[in-house]
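In this section we walk through a basic example: taking a raw amino acid sequence and producing a predicted 3D structure, encoded as C-alpha cells. The instruction is simple. Fold the sequence below.
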Amino acid sequence: MRIVEAVRFGEPDVLVAREAADLAAGPGEAVVGVAVADVIYVETQIRSGWGREFFTVEPPYVPGGAFTGHVLSVGAGVDPAWVGRRVAARTNAAGGGYAEQAVVAADALIAVQEELGLPEATAVLTDGPTALGLLDALPVRPGERVLILAAAGGMGTLLVQLAHAAGAHVIGAARGKAKLDLVRELGADAAVDYSLPDWTDPLGTVDLVLDGAGGSVGRAAFAITAPGGRFSAHGAPSGGFAPIEAAEAEARGVTLRGIADLQFPPEVVRQLAERALAGAAAGRFRPVIGRMFPLERAAQAHAAIEAREVLGKALLEIRPAATVH
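The resulting C-alpha cell sequence is shown next.
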C-alpha cells in the first residue's frame, strides 16, 4: 500500500510517499481502506516540530487522525458485518490516515449515512465535533453579537452557519476578499478583514468571541468583548493562543475558555462526531471543501494550509478500494 510519512521534523517536504506492507487487524480492530483523509492545521504544526511538550510523536510517523473509507477486514471479536461498510474514524493527529489503509479500534468506527459523500463526511469529522462541543458549552443566544475569528477555515465555516441558525448577529473575521465573500455566503451578517490595522474599530462590542486565530488578532477581539461576555481562545494558527490572563477576564466579568476545555473524553468525541455527521447528512450545515489533493501531494496540502490559501477544508483523496461518493 501507499503511505505518506514525516521522515523528520521540518518543512512540508519532509512528508514523503513510499510503499509499505498491507495491514492486518488484530483482536478488536478493523482495517479501513482510506478513501479521504482530513488535513488540519495542527498536523502542520506537529510536522514542523512545534508543541513537542504537548505531542509525543516522533518521526518517522504517518500523520492523519481523521478519515473515511470502507472496512476491508476485521479482527477477532469484531462483528464481520462491518466489512464493506462506509465508515468514518478518528484517532489522533498522528493516527495513520495519510495512507491507503489504517488500523483502528473497532469501537472507533462510525457508520457514514448513504446520503453523505465521503469527502463531506471527512470535512466535518474533526472540526464538527469541536464546533458542536464549543457551542454546547457557550450556547449562542438569539440576537447576540457573535464574532468568529478565522471564519473561513474548516471550523470557522461551521461556526458561522451554526451561530446564524441560532439567531445571532454573526460577524465573521478572516483575511482577504475571497474569504470574506465566503463568510457572507454562509450567513454572516458582516465580514471584516483582520489583516487591516484597527480592524475592530467599526465593530463596537460583542457578546461572544470564538477565536480560531489566536495571537494579536485574538487579543484585539478580547478588547471589544462586552463585560459579562464570553471568549473562547481555542485557535493558535498565528503562532500561539491569544495572550489573555484569567484574572483580567475575571475582572471584566468575561467567561474565558481555552483549548483545554475542548479536550473531550473519547465517548464524548464519538457522540459529537455522530452528531456532526448527522447534521451534515440532514443539511443543517454545509461543509466547505476548498481543495482536495492526491495522497502523494500531502506536502503540497500542508504548504497550502500554512500559506492560508485554502477556503474551508483541505483533504487528501486516496480511494484505495472504491470510488469516493
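Looking at the output, two observations stand out. Confidence is low (pLDDT under 50) at residues 320-325. Residues 127-262 form a domain with the Rossmann fold fold (CATH 3.40.50.720). In the next section we compare this with other chains.
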